[in-house]
Amino acid sequence: MSVRRKTWWPVGVVVAAVAGMAGVYAIRTPPPSPLFEPPAMSMSAPDSVPFDLLTHCGVDEAKIGGVYFEAEVPLIGTAQSAPPGWGNPRQAGRMTLLTPSRAVFRDDLGHEVFFRARPGATEPKLICD
């Protein structure tokens, strides 16, 4: 009785060929260019800084780092004065720049006002006594 042996050489040849091709592909493929890598994402929260918000004519705008921002929802008291519950002429709190064109003011009393940049503005939009 003859015993027939299984030969695995065809599988070995295929594995070697695939491995060789993968090695050639890896050698011929240039490394990724840093110009096309996505920017590193920061996981830290935006910085907030102490800020005295002018409220004498209402809460309508703020000048942050030389850029004029306007309140997304202005808060104006009677006769264009500080809104009820706000300090007059200023309210101390913290301003956080969320993006270059959006910021939020928060204080210890729970007030929160969102602002957006006014591109091209060179002076306040409202001047009162």
Walkthrough of the structure:
The protein is of the alpha+beta class and 129 residues long. It has a domain at 48-117. Helix content is 16%, strand content 33%. It has one helix at 9-28, and strands spanning 48-54, 59-64, 67-75, 90-99, 102-106, 112-117. Strands 1-4-5-6-3-2 form a six-stranded antiparallel beta sheet, with no helix packed on it. A hairpin with a 2-residue loop joins strand 4 (90-99) and strand 5 (102-106). It is globular, with a radius of gyration of 32 Å.
Quick tags:
129 residues, alpha+beta, 1 helix
Question: Uncertain regions: pLDDT < 50 for 5+ in a row?
Answer: 11-43
Tell me about the largest β-sheet.
Answer: 6 strands, antiparallel
- Specify the number of helices: 1
| Total DSSP E strands | 6
Mean pLDDT: 77
- Strand pairing plus helix content: what structural class? alpha+beta
Could you spell the SSE succession in H and E letters? HEEEEEE
The helix content, as a percent range, equals 10-25%
* Residues in β-strands, percent: 25-35%
Write the layout of secondary structure elements.
Blueprint: H1 9-28, E1 48-54, E2 59-64, E3 67-75, E4 90-99, E5 102-106, E6 112-117
Antiparallel strand pairs: 1-4, 2-3, 3-6, 4-5, 5-6
